Amino acid sequence: MQKPVKRGDAWRITVRYLGKRYTATRDTASECEQWATKKLLELQS
Predict the structure, then answer these.
(1) 33-41: which pairs have CB atoms within 8 A and are 24 or more residues apart?
(2) Which domain of life is it from (predicted)?
(3) Is the pLDDT of residue 44 over 80?
(4) Model confidence over 1-24: pLDDT tens digits?
(5) For the chain, what is the domain count?
(6) Of 6, 17, 32, 34, which has fewest CB within 10 angstroms of its CB?
(7) Which residues pair with 24 in a beta bridge?
(8) Facing residues of 6 across strands?
């Protein structure tokens, strides 16, 4: 899993799954990591 990247005052994370990219912008790095974990579980089911 990728690490969150600081973008201005926010954090962005990108999840890649089966050749597609899913991105989210959150207030904190830990929120990004939680989103990425949840998104991967959602995509795999």
Answers:
(1) 33/1, 33/4, 36/1, 36/2, 37/1, 39/15, 40/1, 40/15
(2) Bacteria
(3) yes
(4) 789 999 999 999 999 999 999 999
(5) 1
(6) 6
(7) 13
(8) 11
Rounded Cα distance, 42 and 33, in Å: 14
CA distances from 33 to 20, 29, 45 (A): 18, 6, 19
Q: pTM of the full predicted structure? A: 0.89
Structural domain that includes position 18: 5-44
pLDDT at residue number 15:
96
Helix (H) or strand (E) holding 9: none
Nearest to 2 by CA among 24, 43, 10: 24
